[in-house]
Amino acid sequence: MPYRDPEQRREYGRQWMRRNPEKARAGMQRWRANHPEAHRAEGRAYYARNRERVNARILAYHRANPHIVRAKSQRHRALRLDAVGAFTASEWKALVASYGGRCAYCGAAGPIEADHRIPLSRGGTNAIDNILPACRICNARKHMLTETEFRARLAAEKRRATADYDFSRVLIM
């Protein structure tokens, strides 16, 4: 051992890691693979000591990368429901961009959610070709309807609203 003093030993280790980053990274990966319980315990202890800092870092990441968070949460939901297929954050971003960042149903701008054309609960997949960008209101209203059923519902509501409109109250000048 190069040094008896623990502080000098730590400093020597830090310098060695700076000089040999690939070897250090590989060694850390081997240790984590061989000691999963100890690694988890270290992670829990670090979180207990630095809870606010860790939560702030996670929140900042979520705010900076909403497309990644959305894709990840949809993947987890699909796994829970045993649905096949998955989409990446870049595919989600491209899909939202192709709709101009607007809801596919009502055209509203703002926070957009992934909506399944055929719901997962009715056997739909989690592949990008079964996903549409939707605002929270349309996504909640659609619930377990397919895209076709929901669009028919929207069209019927629009026809009903037009038929119920009282044209006699319109002033013509």
Label the overall shape.
Answer: elongated
- Please count the helical segments: 8
How many structural domains? 2
H/E series: HHHHHHEEHH
Distance between the termini: 98 Å
Total number of strands: 2
Low-confidence stretches: none
CATH top level of the largest domain is Mainly Alpha
Description:
The protein is mainly alpha-helical. The protein folds into two domains: 6-61, no CATH class; 86-164, Orthogonal Bundle (DNA Binding (I), subunit A), CATH 1.10.30.50. The chain has helices spanning 6-19, 21-34, 36-49, 51-64, 66-80, 89-98, 136-142, 147-164; strands at 112-116, 131-135. The longest helix has 18 residues, at 147-164. It starts with 5 loop residues before the first helix and ends in a 9-residue tail after the last helix.
Present the secondary structure layout:
Elements: H1 6-19, H2 21-34, H3 36-49, H4 51-64, H5 66-80, H6 89-98, E1 112-116, E2 131-135, H7 136-142, H8 147-164
TL;DR?
By secondary structure, the protein is mainly alpha-helical. It has helices at residues 6-19, 21-34, 36-49, 51-64, 66-80, 89-98, 136-142, 147-164, and strands at 112-116, 131-135. The protein is elongated.
Fill in the keyword field for this structure.
mainly alpha, DNA Binding (I), subunit A, two-stranded antiparallel ribbon, 2 strands
